[in-house]
Amino acid sequence: MDIDISDILADISRPNVSSLPDTSSPYGDSYVYEPSIAATDHILLTRHWTSERCTPSLLPYPTALINRVMDRIRAQITRIEDLASGTYSNDYGHHQQQQPQQNLNLVLSILQTDLSRTQFLMRSYLRCRLAKITTSATYYSKYHVNSSTSSSDTDTKTPLLSEQETQYLQHHNHLLLNLYNSSFLLSLPPNLRRLDDNTGTTGRMDEGPDMAAAVMVRCLAREWNNETDVFADDGLEGGGQGTQGDVTQEENASVELRCERGGVLVARWRDVKSGVEKGALEVL
């Protein structure tokens, strides 16, 4: 039987996507992913990687997805080492005989290529998040880390930062404060030593990401709108300083948008942020 290699690769990498409605989603019959499928997790990881690289602010950390991918990476490394040494065990713990050298080299090459691809995505994804944390360290420390630790319903929400990222942020701020204190901060009056002081008129010291940056998104849900995300407080209009809490005024949507499945939008990040976080929109 004559089979093209492209057909084999396409069949292997085809995701298992169900067309049944997602009853837990407010967007009706959106795509339902099987989290146990490695190919599906790779697609989701690629989507998170693209979203993180193309958006100005941090997105919620996908703890379950990252844990599954890391488990597969460790298992893949173990399998490659066992194959390279000539002995490996199957799922029942029984040792298998070494395959012919020609087939073994092909299998090792495929496994190593797949491992390198996944490791690249993971490294790039985490480095992108660390770069955002470093750039806006004071902002994330004040408006997200402190507020999340004081809220009572933290367990029901997807965390913005992982535990390791939170530790990195705290250590980064501690080192930065020590550097500033030893360099010039201690020579200033006490009321001018705060790094998150916003009482001046020249700008914010805890400046966050640019929520007005333009992004391109595609709708994955049957239909989507951001009516509930538009800021509706008449007492505050455009560009307010906001207050510490779950969301500041600058992060709220400013324009009502609607889109149907397959539609593409170019909009401000603040107007589509909630849709991307819910999975109704995909960043291109």
UniProtKB/TrEMBL annotation:
The keyword Membrane does not apply. Residues 97-183 form the GINS subunit domain. GO terms for biological process: DNA-templated DNA replication; double-strand break repair via break-induced replication. Its main location: nucleus. CDD domains: GINS_A_Sld5. The keyword Nucleus applies. This is GINS subunit domain-containing protein. It comes from Lithohypha guttulata. The lineage of its organism: Eukaryota, Fungi, Dikarya, Ascomycota, Pezizomycotina.
